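Hi P.,

Sorry for the delay on this. The queue was packed all week, but I finally got your sequence through. Input first:
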Amino acid sequence: FGWTADETIGKTSSEMSWIYKDDVALVMAESAGLLDGTRPRALSIHRNYRKDGTVILCERYDSAIYDADGCLVSILSQVLGITERHRAEAEREALLAQVEQHAAELDAIFTALPFLISVHDREGRYLRVNPAIVQLFGFDPTQTTREETARRLRARLPDGQPLTPEHMPSDTALRGEIVRDVPYLITDARGKDRVLMFNAIPLLADGQVYGAIFAQADITELHALQEQERLLLHTVAHDLRAPATLINGNLELLLERIEPSSLDASLQPVVEALRRALRRMNVMVDDLTEVTRLDA
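Then the structure:
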């Protein structure tokens, strides 16, 4: 409190005025039972003034001491300064409330996302999944192994090769690497083939992988549209190549049968223009064909 023993011995609490003004009634109520003998011990938490005028929070333990006849002789008080402890507890409570709020927000996001989100341990076991996964898979994969989940879904690569532990893209994340945009196929709960785009990020602590988060998007409809586009481009390229070939062949045949000397000079630019146009068309057809090949 800042006072010396000489400054305090022989004085009452009211004379010292070290109890915070708004807490005087509380302290007096706690002390009443000690004074009238109805309470031999008391515990109170209240504020006190220090000699320099600063306010501190204290935890006060009082014990009544009686003589052989049961009369009150004195009161032994032990006072602990708990200002810093109280501040630390308040900060901890505020931090805990903030953590709980953030956790609730993340839970809401986790539940609401239309993507397939899952949390996995170091061995790849499903620890938690969002509702989108259960709805698409038709079961809760946290109740089985990753390998059994792949088997039940008939998970496979685009070339039809089944996903096995030896070449699952999730293993890459569990080795500490980020995985981006790896397509694979499953058969959902309704027996419909779905195309999923797999992404994953490892979870690290002190540089060690302790799990991973998988994020997958159902791109079945997008994949179908892309396939329709590829087929359309392939058809356009085919339909353009046939007439271009026919026109070019007939033009060359016609020119072979005409003596160069008999060809009107004014037609020479026309013939060259036709040839250039046909070359451009062939280049365009080749480009379309290459695009459809790369997208296949």
